[in-house]
């Protein structure tokens, strides 16, 4: 591809051309049959936008707030691990692009630059994504380091007591580079055996499968930062999350990389939003490729969306410039969608602007 990419899918093709197969497969792959991976995107396509006409849309405001932090658009950068596999500047380039675009970056525990290095590289608003390890003192030290280095929230990933079976990584015998955040705390180099990937070996050897709802109290006791939980997919878990006092939720299925045949995130977003009832912000990730996808998520109640793979595609293709362009591309597409739908600000995007498959079924019954 010689022309400049004009959408996220074209960045994906550039990433495919730029990356070794092992790394491209790692970033793009999902669990087992990859049903959920594909459904994350397909479910967006079943939602129809219902535009309003003859509105004054001369001036459009895409800005919003998340946990009180002002950002230029309702698009954040999802925690994505091992970014140095995509580009030598890895998470540093991504953080700088987030700063340039005035949005929030969620740094993965499994980053290839340390949280201190990322904090020092620019003034981006940063959240820190946390896994809980069998040795709780390690997780506590990571939280303390994040707090001491200006991270504004903890994003607790709750859908990974074990790693999902990512068969491309098994076949490729994925090699995991050293994880800078864990240096001096855990072995940072895990080698795959004949049955799996290095990442699976790392996860099975270190993650705490006993972590449960009652342990949120422990996490709250060791930090003053707000806590969002990432991995909510049901009304029941949303209600439980409110009961234990979290500060926000991310509707996520880990990009289709954990439990295959779990629901597409956009298909359960409204259920979670209704259960939460506005008490805390609800965000969503998974399958977001277009500004129209962002608009649909906002209409169904999300305060913002998170994008992961799209950012990595930009990073692999063109480094920091590529991440910046992906974010600007999504912003431009969202702005155009809002103009053509008759919305001057993200606050004006409402449930009446979309029709879901469920809505269509109800209409057919009338």
UniProtKB/TrEMBL annotation:
Key words, A-Z: Flavoprotein, FMN, Oxidoreductase, Peroxisome
Protein name: (S)-2-hydroxy-acid oxidase
Active site (UniProt): 254
Taxonomic superkingdom: Eukaryota
Encoding gene (name): LOC107916411
Enzyme Commission number(s) from the entry: 1.1.3.15
A cellular component term, taken from the record's GO annotations: peroxisome
Catalytic activity: 2-hydroxyoctanoate + O2 = 2-oxooctanoate + H2O2; 2-hydroxyhexanoate + O2 = 2-oxohexanoate + H2O2; a (2S)-2-hydroxycarboxylate + O2 = a 2-oxocarboxylate + H2O2
Gene Ontology molecular functions: (S)-2-hydroxy-acid oxidase activity; FMN binding
Cofactor needs: FMN
Pfam name, any one: FMN_dh
UniProt xrefs under Gene3D superfamilies: Aldolase class I (3.20.20.70)
Keyword Oxidoreductase (UniProt): yes
Localization of this protein: Peroxisome
Domain FMN hydroxy acid dehydrogenase: 1-359
Family: Belongs to the FMN-dependent alpha-hydroxy acid dehydrogenase family.
């Amino acid at each position: 591809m010689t022309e400049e990419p004009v959408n996220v899918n074209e960045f994906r093709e550039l990433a495919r051309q730029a990356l070794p197969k092992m790394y491209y497969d790692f970033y793009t792959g999902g669990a087992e049959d990859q049903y959920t991976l594909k459904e994350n995107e397909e479910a967006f396509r079943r939602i129809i936008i219902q535009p309003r006409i003859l509105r004054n849309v001369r001036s459009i405001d895409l800005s919003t707030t998340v946990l009180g932090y002002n950002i230029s658009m309702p698009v954040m950068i999802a925690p994505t691990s091992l970014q140095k596999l995509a580009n030598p500047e890895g998470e540093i380039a991504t953080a700088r692009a987030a700063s340039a675009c005035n949005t929030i970056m969620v740094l993965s525990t499994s980053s290839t630059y340390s949280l201190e290095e990322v904090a020092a590289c620019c003034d981006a608003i940063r959240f820190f994504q946390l896994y809980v390890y069998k040795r709780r003192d390690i997780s506590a030290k990571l939280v303390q380091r994040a707090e001491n280095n200006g991270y504004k929230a903890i994003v607790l990933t709750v859908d990974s007591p074990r790693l999902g079976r990512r068969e491309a990584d098994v076949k490729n015998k994925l090699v995991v580079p050293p994880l800078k955040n864990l240096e001096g705390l855990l072995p940072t180099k895990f080698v795959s055996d004949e049955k799996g990937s290095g990442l699976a070996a790392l996860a099975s050897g270190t993650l705490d499968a006993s972590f449960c709802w009652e342990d949120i109290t422990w996490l709250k006791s060791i930090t003053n930062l707000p806590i969002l939980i990432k991995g909510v997919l049901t009304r029941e878990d949303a209600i439980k999350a409110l009961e234990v006092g979290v500060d926000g939720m991310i509707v996520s299925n880990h990009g289709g990389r954990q439990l295959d045949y779990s629901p597409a995130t956009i298909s359960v977003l409204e259920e979670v939003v209704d259960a939460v009832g506005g008490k805390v912000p609800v965000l969503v990730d998974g399958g977001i490729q277009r500004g129209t996808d962002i608009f649909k998520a906002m209409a169904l109640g999300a305060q913002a969306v998170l994008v992961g793979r799209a950012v990595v595609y930009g990073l692999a293709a063109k480094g920091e410039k590529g991440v910046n362009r992906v974010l600007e591309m999504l912003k431009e597409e969202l702005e155009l969608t809002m103009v053509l739908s008759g919305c001057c600000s993200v606050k004006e995007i409402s449930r009446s602007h979309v029709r879901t498959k469920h809505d269509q079924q109800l209409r057919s019954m009338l």
